[in-house]
Design brief:
Chain lengths: 754, 352
């Protein structure tokens, strides 16, 4: 059903093609007027409200729930516990492939982490369900919680991230270190962090026999559909998931989570539509987080400041019951040239929810440590940190030796440095003060993120009125897919953007793959491009083989599609409109199909990454230690830019997150209970506007003919990398204090006891 | 949410009578109590909505030169009252450094005084807390205590009072006007909040049903307007509670400090008046050495309640800095970032 009608013409006039134009968001008017319906905005007739009861212990068993007490509360309809939760067709602890995450779906009384769902109260009103959940007054048999990186036996995980090796090396690191003239050996720590999308995980589930309709935010509609199908033992095509808008996902909505499934179970149990919206604090457990890391880096250089060895070891944590290991060391595979590189991991199992992909998983954590270490190494060599990075510039991917498909990082360094004024930076720390006496420091970090691509599918239609349709189950998490993908759709069909009916965001449309890994524009875009090309090809064949067409016999010369017309390539005076071709052929429409996938040959021949350079200025009060990132300039090269306005926004968002990583974000976990003590947006700090007074993102031109035919790399995650380290390095440059525990808070900066 | 009665009286005596019942709580704008109720931290059986009571939303200049601020005056309205801000600049600065613009538009004067601590163990109902459950214990002790109290804490409670507004008010001898069943009484703000000792559940001197109707500043308080600042160190530039804050107000005549006022925020379960430090400054020159001496005295009794020893040294520096800022004169305009170290004007001794 066509839920979404985005008919707003873009505010700007357009010159030439759609791709590359800075269109404003086509869904912007809907969003500011409240017309954009998010999952929780749905209220089907007869709908009940469900609220989670969650565990306050991190490890043990639930020994008592006052179900009669909760059910006695006015308005409470049902309490779902392990005693009555619907049977499932698949054990939610089954793991058939790495993209399956184990869930807690009320199978038993076991507690594996704080905030684990232990019951669901279903009521006529949200208030009654909330009170019902409180009335359950659970009791527990608790076991001691394992909370910190030293609290459990450590082991070497068989793989990190998604199947990446946990031990990898090239060359002889020990020999490289032994031969080095200068060395550093430093250990950095990053805290647990939580995605905190503005929109909590919300689900409205409606069963009709064995057919299911779900409104819920998803970064991977087809995967969610398949997961629900296997859990409930129904066909994927019986499930309709609608997710036209997400209020942010950042990875926490990449795979459907336990609470979302519980809402669907609750609807099945009571035989009525059910809505469940997670409370903010319920998002600190069952929907993923970024695991803490402790990273040791050992670097050595020769007398010219050229790296002789780079070793990057990460200690991280997963849950006790599932595997996700933050691949923080992997960033050292790709960034700096060194004859010897070694990366390794060990891990502990803690009583937490399972960590998960969180915006730049591995790259963000790894980057702040590597960029800090590179800065420390530059200082040990007495070199400017930018000059040091250039001296160790990787012409080929260091670990694999493959050439880069494209790499405009030198231009990023140059343009960013120029814009920032880097040349005026004093080499030594604590040299700059502003007029008010605040310490000023400048730092740089290199940004990098792999250019991924997944499998995606799209359908294109050209109709006999000359308009087009593109259908793809793509995901707009707030990044602007409704606009950027429609731009690709319009160019793919040779139409103006307002002539294309772009349909997206539901599971009954062709599978667009997952909106993750910064790969969605490339994945969905290439599928759309392919579908458009396919439809145009069929239309051209129709015209070229029709004697009545002006394009008859164009044959090898071929045609090009533009503005709703096909033109003979060798003679543009000969053209015909789409409508003319279809009407004459007696066709209502013509359909094309497109599919995208990464090219395995190109993948094995080339290293594919986006790059960037981020320059940060911080000011620090010399006595009070309060820190502010007063100026950020990022220069990024990520292949073809579909919409510079949206791309700039993505860079800004990432850079702000980088500030957050360096200075603000930290889940404060109680060392005894394992509960996160700041599970709210008041106390879990992220930057506010006043924390990012000046942001600039430069779009550095880069052409890449290997990543995909459109030349698109990703822009969604790279902004965090580089920035976090640049801010940390700027803090050092301002104060002379190298803080290796993140976030850098004022208590770590001021000298105690003075 | 537990069912509760909602009562909206139209007169103060009605309100006082309604709120004298056990389990009753006053509701003004609800910026704190509604969150507490949603989280199951407090479960009042009766809410007495005071927002319709007449006459409590005025800022009145008194005949003796003092000012009387009605309990329902909004934080933003008070801070942006030009005459008030001119006479009591440190109070306006403190107000504007608190919360967010949206919250300041809603939050009231009376509510600010009565806001609850932000101790995470108070908010986490799975933790034991002597404030929530007298005698149960304090789970903050030994937990995540970076931001807890360094003054006036006890084994029972190490929480802090989060108000910015109350800090300069205390320094300037504000008086709380209270209406109760037995009539009207007045309590100096300095004595209004209670230290935890063995009964941290009793946070103020209010008796059941008693209602704050106004906060009064004496005429002398305006005598500091040329040298009055509020300085608040926090972990992000805005929308964060103080790690430590300080209000400093000086009367300087002929190059000598005639009278000094100092209070600290974020260090104790009440706004902390530093009278000993004030005494050090009386008659001294407004110089860095004197300010440092005053800061030493202000924190002389401070002890860490956990992993927060840094707050003691930080508090000394903040007192010293706030005094230096006050000495150099109240700025003509409210800084763009009120009370922030990043609002420093050129000319202030920053690195002394």
């Amino acid at each position: 059903m066509p839920d979404i009608a985005i008919a707003q013409a873009p505010a700007q006039s357009r010159h030439g093609s759609n791709i590359g134009q800075p269109l404003t968001r086509r869904d912007g008017i809907l969003k500011v007027t409240g017309g954009a319906r998010y999952a929780a905005d749905h209220h089907p007739p007869g709908m009940l409200h469900a609220v989670l009861a969650v565990s306050s212990i991190a490890r043990g068993r639930v020994t008592f729930l006052d179900v009669p007490g909760a059910k006695a509360h006015s308005g409470v309809v049902e309490v779902m516990t392990p005693a009555n939760a619907p049977a499932l067709a698949l054990d939610p602890d089954a793991k058939l492939h790495p993209f399956m995450f184990r869930m807690d779906l009320l199978r038993n009384d076991r507690v594996r982490y704080a905030n684990q769902p232990i019951a669901v109260v279903i009521a006529k009103t949200l208030e009654a369900a909330t009170e019902g959940a409180a009335l359950l007054a659970p009791r527990y048999a608790a076991a001691p919680a394992r909370v910190g990186l030293d609290d459990a036996e450590c082991f070497v995980p068989p793989a990190v991230g998604v199947g990446n090796p946990s031990v990898l090396h090239r060359g002889d690191v020990e020999a490289g270190l032994a031969a080095a003239v200068a060395r550093i050996d430093a250990t950095y720590e990053t805290p647990p962090q939580y995605h905190n999308a503005m929109e909590p995980h919300a689900t409205v589930a409606v069963w009709d026999g064995d057919r299911l309709t779900v409104d819920t935010p998803s970064q991977g509609l087809a995967m969610a559909q398949a997961r629900v199908a296997e859990l409930f033992g129904i066909k994927p095509e019986s499930i309709h998931i609608r997710s036209p808008f997400l209020g942010g996902g950042f990875g926490s909505k990449g795979m459907i989570s336990g609470p979302q499934i519980l809402a669907i179970m609750a609807a099945r149990l009571v035989g009525r539509p059910v809505k469940m919206v997670l409370r903010r604090e319920h998002m600190y457990g069952p929907v993923g987080h970024r695991a803490p890391t402790r990273q040791r880096l050992r670097l050595g250089t020769d007398r010219d400041g050229v790296l002789t060895a780079l070793e990057h070891h990460t200690r991280t944590a997963s849950s006790t019951f599932d595997d996700f290991f933050e691949p923080a060391s992997d960033i050292s595979h790709t960034l700096y040239a060194s004859p010897a590189i070694a990366t390794s991991y060990d891990a502990v199992r803690l009583d937490t929810g399972t960590p998960l992909f969180m915006r730049a998983p591995g790259e963000a954590t790894g980057s702040i440590a590597l960029e800090s270490a590179i800065d420390e190494m530059a200082h040990a060599c007495g070199m400017d940190p930018l000059a040091f990075r250039l001296a160790n510039y990787a012409e080929t991917e260091p670990m694999s030796g493959r050439p880069f498909s494209s790499k405009a990082l030198r231009e990023c360094y140059a343009q960013g440095a120029e814009r920032f004024g880097w040349a005026r930076r004093p080499l030594a720390p604590q040299q700059m003060r502003d007029a008010a006496g605040l310490l000023v420091g400048w730092g740089v970090g290199t940004a990098t993120f792999p250019a991924h691509m997944f499998q995606g599918h799209a359908r294109a239609v050209i109709r006999d009125d000359g308009t087009g349709v593109i259908e793809i189950g793509a995901h707009d998490m707030g990044q602007g897919a409704w606009t950027a993908l429609a731009q690709i759709a319009a160019d793919g069909l040779g139409l103006d953007i307002d002539q294309v009916d772009f349909r997206s965001g539901t599971s009954d449309l062709p599978d667009a793959g997952i909106a993750g890994g910064s790969a969605h524009t490339a994945t969905a875009g290439m599928a759309i491009h392919g579908a458009g090309t396919d439809a145009i090809t069929k239309l051209a064949e129709l015209a070229m083989s029709d004697q009545r067409s002006k394009l008859f016999g164009a044959g090898n010369a071929g045609v090009i599609a533009r503005g709703g017309r096909l033109f003979r390539r060798d003679d543009e005076r000969r053209s015909e409109s789409y409508a003319e071709i279809l009407v004459r052929a007696g066709l209502v429409q013509i359909e094309g199909r497109g599919q995208s996938a990464s090219d395995p040959t190109a993948q094995s021949n080339y290293a594919m990454h986006a790059h960037g350079a981020v320059f940060a200025e911080v000011k620090v009060d010399p006595e009070l230690g309060q820190i502010r990132a007063t100026r950020l300039v990022g220069a990024f090269a990520a292949g073809r830019v579909i919409n510079p306005r949206l791309v700039r926004s993505q860079y800004f968002g990432g850079m702000i997150w980088g500030v957050s990583f360096a200075l603000h974000e930290r889940a404060a976990t109680d060392p005894r209970s394992g509960r996160v003590m700041n599970p709210n947006l008041g106390e879990y700090h992220v930057p506010v506007n006043a924390d990012v007074p000046s942001l600039e993102a430069i779009l550095v031109e880069e052409h890449d003919s290997h990543v995909n035919a459109l030349g698109i790399k990703g822009v969604g995650e790279i902004g965090i990398t580089g920035t976090a380290g640049a801010v940390a390095n700027a803090v050092w440059h301002a104060t002379g204090a190298r803080i290796r525990q993140f976030p850098i808070t004022l208590d770590r900066l001021i000298v105690p006891g003075c | 949410m537990t069912p509760f009665d909602y009562i909206r009286p139209t007169t103060i005596p009605e309100a006082v009578a309604a709120a004298a019942e056990p389990g009753a709580a006053y509701l003004a704008s609800g910026t704190n109590i509604l969150d507490l109720m949603k989280g199951g931290i407090t479960r009042p059986r009766r809410l007495v909505d005071v927002t319709r009571l007449p006459g409590l939303d005025r800022i009145e200049k008194l005949a003796d030169g003092g000012v009387r601020i009605g309990a329902l005056v909004r934080n933003a309205d008070l801070a942006h009252d030009t005459d008030f801000a001119r006479r009591f600049p440190a109070i306006a600065e403190a107000l504007l450094s608190g919360a967010s613009a949206q919250l300041r538009n809603a939050a009231t004067v009376g509510g600010n005084l009565l806001q609850r601590t932000r101790c995470p163990y108070f908010y986490d109902v799975a933790s034991v807390c002597n404030k929530r459950d007298p005698g149960a214990g304090c789970e903050a002790r030994g937990g995540d205590t970076r931001l807890h109290a360094v003054l006036g804490w006890s084994e029972s409670c190490i929480a802090t009072h989060p108000s910015d507004f109350c800090v300069p008010l205390t320094a300037l001898d504000a008086v709380v006007e209270i209406e109760g069943g037995a009539g009207r009484r007045e309590v100096p703000l300095e004595s209004f909040h209670r230290l935890p000792e063995t009964t941290p559940e009793h946070e103020t001197v209010l008796e059941p049903g008693e209602l704050i109707v106004a906060v009064r500043l004496p005429a002398e308080a305006a005598g500091f307007s040329a040298h009055a600042r509020y300085l608040k160190v926090r972990e992000r530039t805005s929308y964060a509670f103080a790690v430590v804050s300080a209000a400093a107000a000086l009367r300087i005549e002929n190059g000598t400090i005639v009278e000094a006022r100092i209070a600290l925020g974020g260090v104790a379960m009440k706004p902390w008046r530093a009278r000993g430090a004030e005494a050090v400054l009386a008659g001294a020159g407004p110089d860095q050495a004197a300010f440092r001496r005053a800061a030493e005295v202000a924190l002389a009794d401070a002890t860490p309640s956990g992993d927060n020893a840094f707050k003691i040294g930080l508090a000394r520096r903040i007192v010293t800095r706030a005094l230096a800022m006050a000495a150099s004169g109240t700025p003509d305009r409210m800084p763009a970032l009120p009370a922030s170290p990043f609002a420093l004007m050129p000319g202030v001794l920053a690195d002394a």
